[in-house]
Amino acid sequence: MIVSSTTLPHTSLFQTSGRRVRVAVAVLLLLASSQLFAQYDKIAALGSDSARVPIGGPASAPLISTDPYNLPDLRPVGEMNDQLPKWIQFGLEERFRFEGYTGNGFKPGVSDSYLLNRFRLGVIIKPTSWFKVIGQVQDARSFLQTPPIGPPNTVRWDLKLAYAEFGDPETQPVTFRFGRQILDYNNTILSDSQWRNQGRSFDAAVTNIHFGNFRSSIFAASAVIPEPDGLTHHQEGNNIYGIYNTISHVIPESIIEPFVLWRVEPSVAVEASTKKTGHLSEQAYGLRVAGQDIRNFDYRAEVIREGGDAGPNTIDAWGTTFGAGYTVASLRWKPRFFTGYDYASGDQNPKDGIHGTFDTMYPTAHDRFGISDQFGWQNIVAGRAGVTVIPHRRWSVTGQYLDFWLASATDALYNTSGGTILRDSTGKSGTHIGNEVDGYTWYEINREIHAGVGVGHILPGDFIKRAGKGASYTYPYFALEFLDGKRVH
To answer: Which of 342, 401, 409, 468 has the fewest CB atoms in 10 Å of its CB?
Structure first.
């Protein structure tokens, strides 16, 4: 039996009605003539879903450079902060993105394009060296998007951050943080997901321990569930607990990150049972090693093993990822060649009572498997290769190629939220998902303003052609980002 369902709408751009294009162009011209167009964020703060050592190019990460910017700073909030007491500082973020897609769900003729805007205003109150309070409100909206309209593109006037921190984690051995905050330890399984219009927040309690070259975060958290309007909340009983450690100076120019996660949820789908749902108690044991600036070489490797129970089912899943890059610093454009490999297990038998599909938990939502962001780290085998060049100071250009396969032919193809895109439980549709070709560029106008343009195109393989409609998928975008004042995070 072949089952098909569409992916969650991606934020994207072309092939729309003439009226919508004219309206979009008019809005762009209006923005270009206003101060709003000048108020977009520094990529490091708002756009980046890259880990500290990226596999691919800087899909939305800043250039690591000491070269001067081409234009002077634009910092009205920063200038206001200069006049305020140091114990209170403000931060303003604004991001504008025009994007669209064709072939959503790999179905011909399914297309849309729209504008996304995200505004954040935050405050840092730090009356003493050992105590501070962070607050941030956010308004995320989409314009010209085909209904239904809601999360992740539209989340109106929500409380993004609200926490108190006791102690300075950089200078004191033990510190505590309580409230609504960001947990961003690892872009594969527990991260911020900033590319989405609303991002991700957790209601959490965190203890940070810091002794010499050893750091550890011990936390209990629940992800905030985005709503279109009003104050969002987490779901009771849907929690994640963990210990994430970082050890430096054991391997030269590298860090070692062993971690343990425990995820619980009151109701998940189960198999081979008289009941359709059951309680989840899932443990993940992982080890990540990453290094950079090793004679122009960088790398990242990670393996995660998952066990536990989903109702009457036993969990037996695992995933691994590896990436490496080399920068030819002696050449004029300083090309960085990179490659990567990813594997996440799938379910071999949907009736054996063993859950073999890897759970990606709370990952990054951008450039995990290409900038089209169509596939999640579940039942997948992926390879990537590409190059980033810097034609001019503060300007990077990246091209990459990716190849996707199912780990198990009888399991589904999943999106970044864990939803099913396509499934053929008979396994007769093959395992080759398809290929993706990406090109994107970022230009750092000044310290506060950055602009990016990109396009990703997925060519369907045998599995998509047989289990679905077989259409290709295209995702273009144009983004402007601005950060002024203190970074609130």
So the answer is: 401
Rounded CA-CA distance 261/305 in Å is 10
Strand-by-strand arrangement of the 413-414 sheet? 2-4, 420-424, 413-414
What sign does the dihedral 242-248-254-256 (CA atoms) show? negative
Q: What is the DSSP string of 205-272?
A: EEEEEEETTEEEEEEEEEEEE--SBS--EEPTT-EEEEEEEEEESSSTTEEEEEEEEEEEEEEEE-SS
DSSP per-residue string spanning 291-356:
EEEETTEEEEEEEEEEEEEETTEEEEEEEEEEEEEEE-TTSTT--EEEEEEEEE---S-TTSSEE-
Cβ 125 vs Cβ 87: under 8 Å: yes
pTM beyond 0.70: the answer is yes
Eight-class DSSP state of 105: G
CA 72 to CA 483: how far, in whole Å? 14
Q: What is the DSSP letter of 197?
A: S
Per-position pLDDT tens, the chain of length 489:
343 333 444 444 444 444 443 444 343 333 333 333 222 223 333 333 444 445 565 654 555 566 788 888 899 999 999 999 999 999 999 999 999 999 999 999 999 999 999 999 999 999 999 999 999 999 999 999 999 899 999 999 999 999 999 999 989 999 999 999 999 888 899 988 889 999 899 999 999 999 999 999 999 999 999 999 988 999 989 999 999 999 999 999 999 999 999 999 999 988 877 788 999 999 999 999 999 889 999 999 999 999 999 999 999 999 999 999 999 999 999 999 999 999 999 999 888 899 999 999 999 878 889 999 999 999 999 999 999 999 988 899 999 999 999 999 999 999 998 999 999 999 999 999 999 999 999 998 888 999 999 999 999 999 999 998 899 999 999 999 999 999 898
Q: Which domains does the chain have, with CATH numbers?
A: 2-485 (2.40.160.100)
Query: How many CA within 13 A on the CB side of residue 410?
Result: 9
Q: Which amino acid belongs to residue 346?
A: G
Q: Are 411 and 426 in contact (CB under 8 A)?
A: no
Cα separation, 337 vs 339, whole angstroms: 7
The single-letter DSSP state of residue 186 is B
